[in-house]
Amino acid sequence: MEKDIKFFTNGKRIDGRAIDELRNIKIEVGVFKRADGSSYIEWGGNKIYCAVYGPREAYPRFLQKSDRAILKCRYNMASFAVEERKRPGPSRRGVEIGKVTQGALEPALLLENFPKCMVEVNIEVIQADAGTRCAGITAASVALANAGIPMKELVPACAAGKVDDKIVLDLCKEEDNYGQADLPLALLPRRNEFSLLQMDGDLSEEQLEEALDLGRKGCLEVYEIQKEALKKKYVKEDVSNE
Ligand code: UDP
């Protein structure tokens, strides 16, 4: 819902960014010893851990698919992650985000290599500041690579949106809560296809096109950061093994 907020001052946004600028993003790969793959992402004020387990035998067994592995994605936000304490435990919002995360990641994975198995992705939001589903998908994709799950490509994600009738990239909290539209996107960069496209709010057809273009550009920037994070991890390990 739009609130009486001054979204722009001298062409800059509430947090000083240009309309097509991402917040600062830092990704660390391999942060947990007991997970098969893991990552930590800081994206603006978001702080999110991701742990991947598998591929291992799918349990309960009735979930097994004879021709491929299943992908389970769990999204959880800590009670203290938000301004107003969140009720602990599962929520409808969490279930929805787990489901769309699975849909965003699945087309990038070679799940057919592991019949009857499952790959589990756990996303834990420790601090939330808008855009956690995109940050979670971005981190999960890197953690899946760290787990050695065969993949066709990484999946970067990023939101576009509309505030004050302007299309902007990567909404901050005020823009997300009080802006006119929010469009979380995940991209399969090599195929140039979106694997996540949600929309909250109103956009005209032209605005939607503009938001998709800007969102694609944002995802490609996130993609570079994902690749850098993986390179940093493996180049460093190669050096220390010498
Ligand atoms: N949020 C909150 N309490 C909640 C859920 C969300 O304060 O119970 C905040 C949180 O900062 C979140 C933002 O609202 O990042 C936007 O939430 P949304 O459901 O749009 O998902 P997100 O943008 O995080 O993917």
Question: What is the gist of this entry?
Answer:
It is found in: Cytoplasm. It contains 4 helices and 12 strands. The chain is α+β, with helices and mostly antiparallel strands and about 240 residues long.
SSE order and pairing:
Layout lengths: L7 E2 L2 E2 L11 E5 L7 E7 L2 E12 L12 E8 L14 H14 L11 E11 L4 H15 L10 E7 L2 E4 L3 H6 L2 E8 L4 E5 L2 E2 L3 H37 L1
The site of uridine-5'-diphosphate has 13 residues, from helix 2 and helix 3.
Subcellular location: Cytoplasm
Protein name: Exosome complex component Rrp41
GO molecular function, one term: 3'-5'-RNA exonuclease activity
Question: Could you explain how this protein is built, in words?
Answer:
Keywords: Cytoplasm, Exonuclease, Exosome, Hydrolase, Nuclease. Its EC number is 3.1.13.-. By secondary structure, the chain is α+β, with helices and mostly antiparallel strands. It has one domain (8-241): GHMP Kinase, N-terminal domain (Ribosomal Protein S5, domain 2), CATH 3.30.230. It contains four helices and twelve strands. It has helices at residues 92-105, 132-146, 173-178, 205-241, and strands spanning 8-9, 12-13, 25-29, 37-43, 46-57, 70-77, 117-127, 157-163, 166-169, 181-188, 193-197, 200-201. The protein has a five-stranded mixed beta sheet with strand order 3-4-5-7-6. Strands 8, 9, 10, 11 and 12 form a five-stranded antiparallel beta sheet that branches. A two-stranded antiparallel sheet has the order 1-2. α1 crosses α2 (132-146) and α2 (132-146) packs parallel to α4. The longest helix has 37 residues, at 205-241. The model has no long low-confidence stretch (mean pLDDT 96). It binds uridine-5'-diphosphate. Residues 82-83, 86, 93, 128-133, 173, 176, 184 line the site of uridine-5'-diphosphate (UDP).
